[in-house]
């Protein structure tokens, strides 16, 4: 029995079973169930280094203080603590493992810390004597604020912007972030505007060019106001609206208006050439009549003079001829009026047509454009158009002919000094 008792004590002290030999084997009965229970309840030694109370997720309010004592399963005097990539202000006491932090508001106002941003902090604990005895882990730190700072939309221009038709306007739609930044922007306006690109998020550019004709004649003061609203929303659908008033002023569409001016000038030049051809026809008719009348006048004068000469001759026949010839000269006067009557209407028409041509030439010279963007372009075009219409009304009863000669030949005839002399004003 002494031998069996010694063997049982040996088993308990060593923790494992050894073969036991006894002289009395029949009287010893070992309860295997109790032996297994004793083996299972023997405590195992805790040798792996671990942190007992690490919280993997820590949230802090602004202006709050954190004091968190970290604990390990071994003697802390033999270990030291350290942090890597920690946010500003977060510290750990090297020997005791006391984690401290004061979330001062100045950190957030200066931008060194941000709300609702998860900071992943790497934490380590290291044995002073054994480099392999260490732990590297991490936890997440999040700051929150109960003070609500709204996010706002801040366009880079004033509330009122002026722009002319045909010009372009461009500005950036910026945002002032609060607790929760604006995630999307919606644009609305009281008139449909076709922008270059879209404004959908902070930092996008608004670009628009009001077309010519956007301002209607019925608009007051030749101005049209476009109200553009930029509505921003954060992830909680909290909205902020910025309103820009774009005042569009009427402007001249110079490319189109220059084409209209050139078209009016071409019409005037074409009509002036037709008037020159008409003047040439009228002047030739007046000139032909004047030559015929001059011939009759010379013949009548020669007859009267011949009668006087023949009356002074000695023979009776010659004297008789002298009496007849003056009557012949007198008889040619009604013949002249019948064959070549004075064409006063043609002459007056020729004078009126010539004056109209001179007037059109003067208008063209006086209303020339002084540049690609002449500020008086509209007035000059309208003046030429009105004067052309007025001259056409004055000459409505004059049959205007189509010119068959070249413009150079018409100008040569019209500017002939002999022709111009007949229509020049005479001094009284």
Write out key terms for the chains shown.
about 425 residues; alpha+beta; Immunoglobulin-like; 4-stranded mixed β-sheet; disordered N terminus
Describe this structure in words.
Helices cover 38% and strands 21% of the residues. By secondary structure, it is of the alpha+beta class. The strands form four sheets. It has a four-stranded mixed beta sheet, with no helix packed on it. Strands 9-14-13-11 form a four-stranded mixed beta sheet, with no helix packed on it. Strands 2-5-4 form a three-stranded antiparallel beta sheet, with no helix packed on it.
The CATH level-2 architecture of the largest domain is identified as Up-down Bundle
- In the CATH scheme, what's the topology name of the largest domain? Substrate Binding Domain Of Dnak, Chain:A, Domain 2
The beta-strand count equals 14
- Tell me the span between the first and last alpha carbons: 177 Å
Biggest sheet layout: 4 strands, mixed
DSSP helix fraction: 25-40%
What is the N-to-C succession of helices and strands?
HHEEEEEHEEEEEEEEEHHHHHH
Stretches where pLDDT falls below 50 for ≥5 residues? 1-30, 335-342
Number of domains: 4
User: How are the strands of the biggest sheet laid out side by side?
Assistant: 1-7-6-3
């Amino acid at each position: 029995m002494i031998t069996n008792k010694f063997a049982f004590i040996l088993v308990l002290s060593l923790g494992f079973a050894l073969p036991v030999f006894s002289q009395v084997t029949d009287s010893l009965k070992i309860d295997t169930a109790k032996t297994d229970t004793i083996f299972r309840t023997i405590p195992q030694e805790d040798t792996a280094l671990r942190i007992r109370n690490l919280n993997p997720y820590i949230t802090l309010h602004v202006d709050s203080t954190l004091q968190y004592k970290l604990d390990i399963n071994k003697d802390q005097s033999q270990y030291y603590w350290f942090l890597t990539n920690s946010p500003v202000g977060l510290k750990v006491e090297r020997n005791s493992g006391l984690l401290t932090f004061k979330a001062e508001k100045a950190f957030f106002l200066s931008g060194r810390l941000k709300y609702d941003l998860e900071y992943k902090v790497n934490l380590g604990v290291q044995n002073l004597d054994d480099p392999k005895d260490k732990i590297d882990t991490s936890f997440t730190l999040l700051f929150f604020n109960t003070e609500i700072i709204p996010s706002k939309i801040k366009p880079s221009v004033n509330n009122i912007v002026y722009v002319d038709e045909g010009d372009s306007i461009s500005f950036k739609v910026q945002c002032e972030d609060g607790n929760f930044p604006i995630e999307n922007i919606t644009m609305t306006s009281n008139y449909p505007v076709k922008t270059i690109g879209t404004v959908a998020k902070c930092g996008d550019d608004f670009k628009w060019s009001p077309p010519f004709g956007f301002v209607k004649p019925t608009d007051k003061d030749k101005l049209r106001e476009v109200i553009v609203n930029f509505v921003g929303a954060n992830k909680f659908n909290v909205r902020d609206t910025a309103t820009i008033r774009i005042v569009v002023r009427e402007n001249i569409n110079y490319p189109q208006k220059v084409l209209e001016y050139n078209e009016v000038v071409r019409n005037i030049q074409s009509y002036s050439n037709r008037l020159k051809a008409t003047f040439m026809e009228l002047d030739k008719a007046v000139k032909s009549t004047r030559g015929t009348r001059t011939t009759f006048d010379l013949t009548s004068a020669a007859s009267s003079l011949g009668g006087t000469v023949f009356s002074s001759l000695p023979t009776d026949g010659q004297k008789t001829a002298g009496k007849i010839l003056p009557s012949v000269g007198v008889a040619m006067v009604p013949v002249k009026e019948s064959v070549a009557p004075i064409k006063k209407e043609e002459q007056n028409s020729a004078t009126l047509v010539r004056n109209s041509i001179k007037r059109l030439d003067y208008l063209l010279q006086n209303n020339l454009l002084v540049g690609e963007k002449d500020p008086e372009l509209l007035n000059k075009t309208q003046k030429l158009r009105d004067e052309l219409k007025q001259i056409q009304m004055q000459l409505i009863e004059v049959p205007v002919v189509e010119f068959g000669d070249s413009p150079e030949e018409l100008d040569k005839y019209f500017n002939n000094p002999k022709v111009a002399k007949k229509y020049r004003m005479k001094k009284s």
